[in-house]
């Protein structure tokens, strides 16, 4: 009884104070919290409200998108992507970045520094978030603007994952052209930038350089053999049926699973010799792979999957560097797989699989970037320079574009201008380099990409 | 104690910041943890590779996520 009285009394007091001081009680609805999810909900509602389910073009595009994702899942995930993740993870753990960076330091030879900068992206730039700090470091503390630009340009195009996926899906000719083009033009663009802004180069502050310490020390030949084995495994597992029977290519194709198994066994032996993998575990793993390989040889994917699981168990049940290797590979897989899936679905929806149409009519694509005209190459370069491609998604998108009639020249132009640049990325580069240098860099990239597209398209005959 | 975590904002850098903050709280040492995201400022430390940790102006770790025990060792 006494409590209710006191409450009503205090309520009156509060009411009075509000009446006297504040004209209005603050709302308990916090719009700042609400508007974001609300937009998502309303957007989703509008999307489904107007979903054109009766349009055959739309339903066809949805089926195309799912079919493309299925094709990737069947053909590329187990044989190509998963091994590539382990290779990329291994590069991050076993390749000493410090030993590469010493060629990009302030005292390094100029000629050598350009060469090293143009190829070191393959081992240094495996993670996109390391590219910009390395670039700024090479420019301000190391070899200077030219090598820094060379590194910035070639890095995204020649990291191991990008090369493997481009060659596998778009064909070895474009894969090779992409790598060679990126390396060559990175040197040219770097030199141009150096000459244009030579006067502005400041004297290098003699500060100590802090390199990432390598996680493990291992002789170069061992690291090389380790990666050669893994690349051999990847190449033999993904070896395609040659167009004509007979000859060496056919012989390799016939023996591809034997070769794959051989490389896998060699990899296991190397892991026992150089890492702390126990012999009995390797014997168990080999036996586990041999069972499905002998029982159901018509389904090699089963044996391959068991092999992947066995390999992962070897990595995770052994202490030391194998654990770092696993963690680094897992980080890549976790980061890239969702992006790639989204990229494949969007590419399938908009462009369809090669030979069929998605939402965008193939006629538009072939009229814009078909053939190998200067205009087509320039258009592809400019679009590539401004558009943002999440890691590796340039590959399915280009596959769709080529299927819809894009010429090989413009495809290479887009590949050379695309991953190195994007609008958000330009803004970040601008905050580092300033407007003038960024503009010069963008123009150089677009011109170079257009030129290389024209040359490549001419060589490939359109 | 002035601790800086250098990194442009990738997942590894955020993990590093979290570990450093936890270690600082655990150690009971008074200090601040600042995140440096500006690439030019990162380059100014002469650091090639992120995430990196700088304790009182001294670069302690470059290019990897440090273990909490290591961080405790640096700040004690």
Question: What report would you give on this structure?
Answer:
- The complex is a heterodimer of chains A (462) and B (76).
- Chain A is mainly alpha-helical and 462 residues long.
- Helices cover 75% and strands 0% of the residues of chain A.
- Chain A contains 21 helices and no strands.
- In chain A, helix 3 (56-94) runs antiparallel to helix 8 (160-170), helix 10 (220-237) runs antiparallel to helix 12 (256-274) and helix 17 (374-386) crosses helix 21.
- In chain A, 42% of the residues are buried.
- Residues 1-9 of chain A have low confidence and may be disordered.
- Chain B is an alpha+beta fold and 76 residues long.
- Chain B has three helices and four strands, in the order βαβαββα.
- In chain B, strands 2-1-3-4 form a four-stranded mixed beta sheet.
- Classes of the chains: A mainly alpha (462), B alpha+beta (76).
